Amino acid sequence: MESEGNVVEDSSTCVYLVTFLALGVLVLSVLYLIYTKRRLRKAWRRESSGGGSGGGAMLVVHCPGPATHTPCVSSFVMKLRTFLRMAYIPYVLDHTEPMGPRGLCPWVSWEGEVLTDSQLIINRLAATNDAWNLNRQLSETERAVARAFAVMVDEYLCWCLREWRIKADNGRSLAEDGGLSWYQRLLIPAYVLLRRWTLWEQGIGRHTHTQVQQSTRNVLHSLSHFLGDKPFLMGDEATEVDCSVFGQLASIVYNYTRSPYHSIITVEYPNLLQYVERVKARYWPDWDTCLLHS
């Protein structure tokens, strides 16, 4: 009996020791991750303020890496990068830390500062240099219309697309097009569950997929009708709203090929497909080289 008690006691001691060591490794890993992130952000601030080896200030876009069919699976990354190309603002990419300090993607390091949220970044850049203001030729009324369309696609259409990706497609498109590593693919089911809760809290997840699909069709109809045969949404030249619209529509055309929205664009509203191809040809001539495994 005494020997059995010693065995039990030794086993308990081993369990406690293993648990303690595991917790220690976890704590050290977290501390190392925090230290690494802080060191990287200091380096990015130095580079973006002109203190790096290049000697000049550079805008650094922090975002996920390239996807199979688009330069990035995030429509908001596509929105920001399209704006930078339209405004002829040079930038470099960093994929080591895609989520910013506020948990948003994309974010940028610029002139020693950290800027988050694609629209806030665009607003800041446009206010800094008038040559970067893509809306400078628009009247106040035209700016109001453009802003309304931007909000419609950024704050409404994007949620409709997320509803299909998470509820109808169960995250399959992420596994196929997101350029994820094998261990990230293993986390997709957990991500889908978390996003389902997010969709419910936002409100779009409380509707049936049929209702959301009709809402999406209405948005695409509005875009198609307003665009008509114009080269860009507001006329002959691209403006800021085209960055938002292109970001969302390009996702449908290239990343949502199984969704009903792909056929709505390609069959019912071909002018939207032509629009996507037009923006891509003008501002993304290197599109193929920006894709995963290119």
TrEMBL record:
Residues 218-279 form the Metaxin glutathione S-transferase domain. The lineage of its organism: Eukaryota, Metazoa, Ecdysozoa, Arthropoda, Crustacea. The chain crosses the membrane at residues 15-35. This is Uncharacterized protein. Keywords: Membrane, Transmembrane, Transmembrane helix. One of its GO terms (cellular component) is cytoplasm. Belongs to the FAX family. It comes from the Eukaryota. Residues 76-161 form the Thioredoxin-like fold domain. Coiled coil: none annotated. Pfam families: GST_C_6, GST_N_4. It comes from Petrolisthes manimaculis. InterPro entries: FAX/IsoI-like (IPR026928), Glutathione-S-Trfase_C_sf (IPR036282), Glutathione_S-Trfase (IPR040079), Metaxin_GST (IPR033468), Mito_Protein_Transport_Metaxin (IPR050931), Thioredoxin-like_fold (IPR012336), Thioredoxin-like_sf (IPR036249). PANTHER family: FAILED AXON CONNECTIONS-RELATED, METAXIN RELATED.
